[in-house]
Design goal:
By secondary structure, this protein is of the alpha+beta class. Helices cover 33% and strands 17% of the residues. α4 packs antiparallel against α8. It starts with 10 loop residues before the first strand and ends in an 8-residue tail after the last helix.
């Protein structure tokens, strides 16, 4: 990795001098399925989405606190390098396909793990890795490639100073997230209380199916419906001059995808805009009788994981499992007075707004990493040229 001349307090190393490869496997099966983690392209450890129940966990690698792990495959990863630091208090295990390493014991007077994580957590570093990956059908960035990086380091107190700034921002975001979780629990508690206190009713009598086609001169505002339960730009190419047969989803109407075999969730979206949205003709569109069933209140149920499980359980079909309009109208939920529905829905709206703020805080933390690295290098000396 290119770097320029050094200031008085900056020290240049080849990264391989400071880190060492680890191969501690879960041979005694001390760690189980609940301890399995993957590495996402946001550079965080996460519960794996893969089904590992049939995998031989004795071959999985142990990642202890303070150790790094990365996926050396870089293809089809959003131009990101998936590398993470186990900044928790307990070991986890990752597939044997990953690479695990740590800072050498005798190098810890030169490099702090959290500072190295900030160094990795920059778009500049992602670009460098992607540019230097190799392979034909699948591209790789291997251990040897990582070791070949030239890196400039400020002294340990300077590294710690900027790590402390980062940790303070993370602590603030995590405190905000805990408050967010408390608000979500409050919303869920209201729903559970309603379920105990009043009978559930079929929603079929309170909703109306719509099949309004867009027509030749209709809206060009075509959208898909994502598994995150919102409208999104279509993932496939759509000719906006051929939308006549698409269905119109008016403001305050709901559209949903009938198939569940690929999605694994009830895939729906609520049009909370002031504009018509057109969706594929295979999707269903409906509205609620708003004086009896508030759509935002209904959406609260659609957003619950237990409703996803319900939709999956009641889906049918061989090649393509579906949850149709006829299945939807049989769904039962508590339907209290409309004023109560609105008050609960408003609380959930606040939760969603705060959830977006939380995502913005996470983005700010991600964006601050290159600034912190640059600041630490400037504090430690004046490097010539942009560090990679």
């Amino acid at each position: 990795m290119p770097s320029g001349g050094l200031g008085m307090s900056l020290h240049k190393y080849r990264l391989g001098e400071l880190i060492e490869l680890l191969e501690h496997t879960n041979s005694d099966l001390h760690y189980g399925v609940d301890d399995v983690r993957g590495v996402n392209n946001l550079k965080r450890l996460m519960p794996t989405k893969a089904d590992v129940n049939e995998r031989d966990l004795s071959k999985f690698q142990i990642v202890k606190p303070g150790e790094f792990v990365f996926n050396h495959r870089t293809s089809r990863n959003g131009s990101k390098f998936s590398i993470a630091l186990n900044d928790g208090n307990t070991p986890v295990i990752c597939t044997e396909d990953y690479v695990v390493f740590r800072i050498k014991v005798d190098s810890r007077d030169a490099l702090i793990a959290e500072w190295l994580y900030l160094y990795f957590n920059r778009s500049e570093f992602d670009r460098y890795v992607i540019t230097n990956s190799w392979g034909s059908s699948t591209e790789f960035y291997n251990w040897e490639d990582l070791c070949d990086i030239d890196i400039e380091l400020p002294d340990l107190p300077t590294q710690q100073k900027y790590v402390d700034v980062y940790n303070a921002m993370v602590a603030n975001q995590q405190a905000y997230e805990r408050g967010l979780e408390d608000l979500k629990l409050t919303c869920d508690a209201y729903i559970e209380d309603l379920r105990r206190k009043m009978p559930c009713k079929k929603i079929g009598r309170y909703i109306e199916r719509h099949d309004i086609r867009n027509g030749k001169n209709g809206s060009k505002n075509v959208m898909g419906i994502s598994t995150s339960k919102q409208f999104r730009e279509p993932t496939s190419k759509v000719n906006k001059n051929e939308l006549a047969n698409y269905k119109v989803c008016h403001p305050r109407q709901i559209g949903f995808v009938q198939t569940t075999h690929n999605e694994k969730v009830f895939t729906y979206a609520f049009n909370n805009t002031k504009e018509d949205i057109v969706v594929s003709s295979v999707n269903e569109v409906f509205s609620t009788q708003e004086d009896k069933l508030y759509p935002e209140y209904l959406c609260m149920f659609f957003n619950r994981t237990e409703y996803d499980r319900y939709a999956r359980f009641h889906s049918w079909g061989s090649a393509r499992e579906t949850f149709t309009w006829n299945d939807l109208i049989e769904v039962k939920i508590p339907i209290p007075d409309i004023a109560i529905q609105k008050s609960i829905a408003e609380m959930y709206t606040v939760y969603n707004k705060r959830k977006k703020i939380n995502e913005q805080l996470k983005a700010q933390i991600k964006n601050i990493c290159p600034i912190l690295i640059r600041g630490s290098l400037e504090d430690g000396g004046e490097p010539n040229g942009e560090p990679a």
